[in-house]
């Protein structure tokens, strides 16, 4: 406290329980008699803080850090203010080590946040980091996806990404971004923008699922009203090969009724706005504006959303997924029929209800392709079987009963259509093999996007199931982060400080335990023939008299009860609980829709995939349950299978699947209830962070050892860092001691580099090495540098060897070229001399040809000599000149012949020299590389 009592206004402390900020940093202004007066920077309001509660503020927290584990002094105030300050700087992602990401919904589009360049950046950084986390990479959805993908390729375990948070926190958008990342994985810098077929199917499923499964609620304009688990399968090369979607608990009641300022499913409004543009069936749908239909009249529009264009996008995606024209038209016809069912009015008649609007009846029968007579009978009478006489009884229905039948038909039509759409999307995205079973050498990444925790003014059975699902997921998170962590440390003999955390096991037990859990009471009441919502509520109150989890509250209506969930108290209204839990569909409706001439409608009510025998499915799902004998169905089990039973079985299977993966968590936070950008309700955000267990997560991550590797695996990976530590010739080396030596030597090296390792950054357990993330990152970085040194050395040797081989080849080739050049030069000289010889010989032949004429002339001159003795001297001179010319010609001929012989001798000598040089070169090359020499000789 000495640093705080200076009163210079520079010391900063946390103000706890701030009326608007929850936690707020303040500056010490002065010291009072009972504590410190702190001035909050923004408002200038003074708060009194007791000395023992004055916690100093880490300056890094005020700036906002990427990873909350890097904060030196951590508390809830640091967590809240760090998330808050980053949010107002448009940094909506904050990391808690590698497995947890906090994502705050910005309620705006942030430019450049999800570009392909950003995807490439995280893909390359994750690949470079390997199994270690790159601490320099800013937190992002893509960093989580990239880390999961890299871990999937490097480890033998499947991965999962669990996206959770309250309604409106941005879960659906996060799921879409992650799916886009995985679909774009195969793109490279030189690749085209087109994706492969399976990748296209994955992305095209989103608009369809959102249209038919999302709706506007008070808290969220695009709220997912169903849960989905997307199983993405990759081949051994890392290429996306198939995808499968599992859907959970579509909110059926929203089809027929919505709260004020809420809408039904988007598909209803999209079809009303743009159905007329469907060239094939638009005019036959008979739809009007959304506010003119009973099921869509509460709220018809969403600001900034064009329903008609959204319908066009969904229809295009159906085409892209390979929907036939008949399938697409049938989907829209069923949706239109559901809307028309909501407009049906009934009047009292002599023999059951009467349908006064014949045109509306005709339109519904036309859309569903059913008989009008059968359709009318279904709403006029209800067929029952006398349990004693087994006779069929046709009981007239009053308008109220007929109206309930209408709602039941609408809900089952739409919900089963949604199941069919999911099945059809899976069929397109199954890849080769049709998705029939697990393929060899494949790995998976699962993405869970399930409803967030919900609290409304009117909370019914759907909210109870949704919040129970969140309890189960929170328990999985607690089990993975806390329970299993502590258990593993104890088993391995790792010393660490125990951390207290909020466990919701008691809540889950009181909701689902047998035989007196809340859901068991609901299921048992559904068996009672005279049970009502009131009797069910009375049984709940009597069974949980002393419970702290489920209790009666006097602050609300007598039809309410409260549950203390991990995220806070929720008050449920028991009205319609039994009806929604039973969810019965009368046989008359099933038989009517089975008789439809439309294949999809008929399939929805006859195919077990969309109309399963609940008794058989429940019996198969119970471990150890004996198979029912033919003709002896378990009637009690058949009656006892309710919506809650089926939903809990799905949740148990989901948690079991998640337990077989290495999970990563994205905790989505809703900053405010007004859906406005740059606005934060700090108190509500603080509550969400508490409910998500973020504070405990950070504490255990900092105190624990999130990285653990078996001894042999650790040694084989990091042995390059200490080359002198080796197994020697031992067949059974002591890997535990080897790992300890490696870590000790590495720690000493870091110390020598003046980069000391944090105390207790590693421990050696009984079967594994335990590391903190900071040390793991440094080890991976050091390993990368060591590998780089070895790689450079190997490259140096390889390049030298290649250069020497190249030199020998080039030298041999040069010798051969030189020999060839000498041969060519000799041949050129020979040709030159040969030409000279030919010219000399031609001159000689010319002279020889002129010689006879000269001789004849000489003879004629000799005959005339007596007559010309007057000039003897001239004649003698001419004769002498002719003889000299002849002698000269003869000498030239002899010289040319001699020169020709010399050229021939020189040419022969040059040829012999070249042949000898070539033989010597070939012998040397044959000694170096026999195969290359053979080819050169050939």
From TrEMBL:
GO biological process, one term: actin filament organization
Region called Disordered, residue ranges: 614-638, 906-938
A molecular function (GO) term: ATP binding
Keywords: Actin-binding, ATP-binding, Motor protein, Myosin, Nucleotide-binding
UniProt: ATP binding residues: 165-172
Region of interest (Actin-binding), residue spans: 651-673
Domain Myosin motor: 63-784
An example Gene Ontology CC term for this record: cytoplasm
PROSITE patterns in the cross-refs: IQ, MYOSIN_MOTOR
InterPro entries given in the database record: Kinesin_motor_dom_sf, Myosin_head_motor_dom-like, P-loop_NTPase
Gene3D superfamilies: 1.10.10.820, 1.20.5.4820, 1.20.58.530, Kinesin motor domain, Myosin VI head, motor domain, U50 subdomain
Top-rank lineage group of the source organism: Eukaryota
Keyword ATP-binding recorded: yes
Family listed: Belongs to the TRAFAC class myosin-kinesin ATPase superfamily. Myosin family.
PANTHER family assigned to the protein according to its UniProt record, in alphabetical order: DILUTE CLASS UNCONVENTIONAL MYOSIN, ISOFORM C, MYOSIN
Protein name: Myosin motor domain-containing protein
Organism: Effrenium voratum
């Amino acid at each position: 406290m000495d640093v705080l009592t200076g009163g210079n206004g520079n010391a900063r402390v946390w103000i706890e329980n701030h009326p608007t900020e929850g936690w707020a940093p303040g500056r010490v202004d002065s010291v009072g008699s009972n504590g410190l007066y702190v001035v909050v920077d923004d408002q200038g309001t003074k708060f009194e803080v007791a000395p023992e509660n004055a916690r100093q503020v880490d300056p890094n927290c005020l700036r906002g850090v990427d990873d909350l584990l890097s904060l030196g002094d951590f508390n809830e105030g640091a967590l809240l203010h760090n998330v808050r300050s980053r949010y107002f700087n448009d940094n909506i992602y904050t990391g808690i080590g590698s497995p947890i990401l906090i994502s705050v919904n910005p309620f705006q589009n942030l430019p450049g946040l999800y570009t392909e360049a950003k995807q490439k950046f995280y893909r390359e950084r994750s690949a470079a980091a390997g199994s270690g986390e790159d601490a320099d990479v800013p937190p992002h959805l893509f960093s989580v996806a990239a880390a999961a993908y890299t871990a999937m390729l490097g480890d033998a375990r499947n991965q999962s990404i669990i996206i959770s948070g309250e309604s409106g926190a941005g879960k659906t958008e996060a799921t879409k971004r992650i799916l886009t990342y995985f679909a774009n994985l195969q793109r490279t810098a030189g690749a085209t923008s087109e994706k492969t077929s399976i990748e296209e199917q994955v992305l095209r499923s989103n608009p369809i699922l959102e249209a038919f499964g999302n709706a506007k609620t008070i808290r969220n304009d695009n709220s997912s009203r169903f849960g989905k688990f997307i199983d993405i399968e990759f081949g051994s090369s890392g290429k996306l090969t198939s995808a499968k979607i599992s859907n959970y608990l579509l909110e059926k009641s929203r089809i027929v009724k919505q709260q004020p300022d809420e809408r039904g499913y988007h598909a209803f409004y999209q079809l009303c706005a743009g159905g007329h543009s469907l060239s094939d069936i638009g005019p036959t749908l008979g739809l009007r504006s959304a506010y003119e239909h009973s099921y869509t009249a509460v709220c018809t529009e969403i600001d900034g959303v064009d329903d008609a264009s959204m319908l066009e996008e969904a229809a295009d995606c159906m085409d892209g997924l390979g929907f036939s024209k008949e399938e697409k038209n049938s989907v829209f016809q069923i949706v239109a029929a559901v809307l028309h069912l909501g407009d049906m009015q009934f009047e009292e008649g002599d023999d059951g209800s009467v349908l006064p609007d014949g045109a509306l009846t005709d339109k519904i029968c036309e859309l569903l392709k059913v008989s009008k007579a059968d359709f009318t009978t279904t709403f006029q009478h209800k067929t029952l079987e006398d349990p004693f006489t087994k006779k069929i009884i046709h009981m007239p229905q009053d308008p109220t009963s007929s109206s309930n039948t209408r709602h039941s038909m609408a809900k089952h039509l739409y919900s089963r259509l949604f199941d069919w759409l999911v099945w059809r999307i899976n069929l397109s995205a199954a890849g080769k093999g049709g998705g029939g079973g697990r393929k060899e050498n494949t790995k998976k990444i699962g993405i869970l996007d399930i409803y967030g925790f919900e609290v409304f003014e009117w909370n019914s059975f759907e909210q109870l199931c949704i919040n129970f699902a969140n309890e189960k997921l929170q328990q999985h998170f607690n089990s993975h982060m806390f329970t299993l962590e502590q258990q593993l440390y104890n088993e391995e003999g790792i010393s660490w400080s125990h951390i207290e955390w909020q466990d919701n096991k008691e809540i889950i037990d009181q909701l689902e335990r047998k035989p007196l859990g809340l859901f068991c009471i609901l299921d048992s009441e559904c068996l009672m023939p005279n049970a009502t919502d009131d009797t069910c509520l009375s049984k709940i109150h009597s069974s949980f008299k002393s419970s702290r989890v489920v209790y009666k509250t006097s602050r609300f209506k007598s039809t309410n009860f409260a549950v203390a969930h991990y995220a806070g108290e929720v008050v449920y209204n028991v009205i319609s609980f039994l009806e929604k839990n039973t969810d019965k569909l009368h046989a008359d409706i099933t038989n009517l829709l089975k008789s439809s001439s439309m294949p999809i409608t008929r399939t929805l009510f006859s195919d077990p995939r969309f109309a399963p025998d609940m008794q058989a499915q429940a019996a198969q799902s119970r471990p150890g349950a004996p198979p029912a004998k033919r003709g002896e169905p378990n009637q009690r089990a058949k009656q006892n299978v309710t919506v809650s039973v089926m939903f809990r079985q799905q949740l148990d299977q989901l948690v079991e699947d998640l337990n077989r993966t290495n999970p990563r968590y994205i905790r989505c936070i809703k900053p405010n209830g007004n859906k406005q950008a740059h606005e934060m309700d700090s108190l509500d955000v603080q509550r969400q962070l508490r409910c998500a267990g973020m504070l405990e997560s950070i504490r255990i991550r900092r105190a624990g050892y999130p990285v653990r590797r078996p001894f042999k695996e650790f040694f084989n990976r990091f042995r390059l860092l200490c080359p002198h530590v080796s197994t020697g010739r031992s067949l059974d080396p002591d890997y535990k001691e080897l790992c300890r030596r490696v870590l000790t030597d590495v720690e000493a090296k870091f110390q020598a580099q003046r980069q000391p390792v944090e105390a207790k950054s590693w421990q050696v357990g009984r079967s594994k090495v335990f590391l903190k993330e900071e040390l793991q990152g440094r080890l991976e970085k050091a390993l990368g540098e060591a590998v780089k040194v070895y790689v450079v050395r190997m490259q140096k040797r390889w390049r030298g060897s290649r250069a020497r081989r190249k030199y020998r080849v080039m030298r041999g080739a040069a010798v051969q070229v030189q020999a060839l050049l000498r041969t060519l030069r000799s041949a050129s000289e020979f040709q030159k001399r040969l030409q000279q010889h030919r010219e000399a010989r031609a001159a000689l032949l010319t002279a020889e040809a002129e010689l006879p004429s000269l001789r004849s002339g000489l003879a004629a001159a000799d005959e005339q000599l007596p007559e010309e003795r007057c000039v003897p001297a001239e004649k003698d001179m001419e004769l002498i000149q002719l003889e000299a010319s002849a002698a000269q010609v003869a000498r030239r001929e002899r010289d040319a012949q001699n020169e020709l012989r010399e050229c021939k001798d020189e040419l022969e000598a040059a040829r012999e020299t070249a042949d000898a040089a070539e033989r010597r070169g070939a012998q040397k090359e044959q000694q170096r590389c026999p195969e290359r020499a053979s080819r050169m000789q050939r």
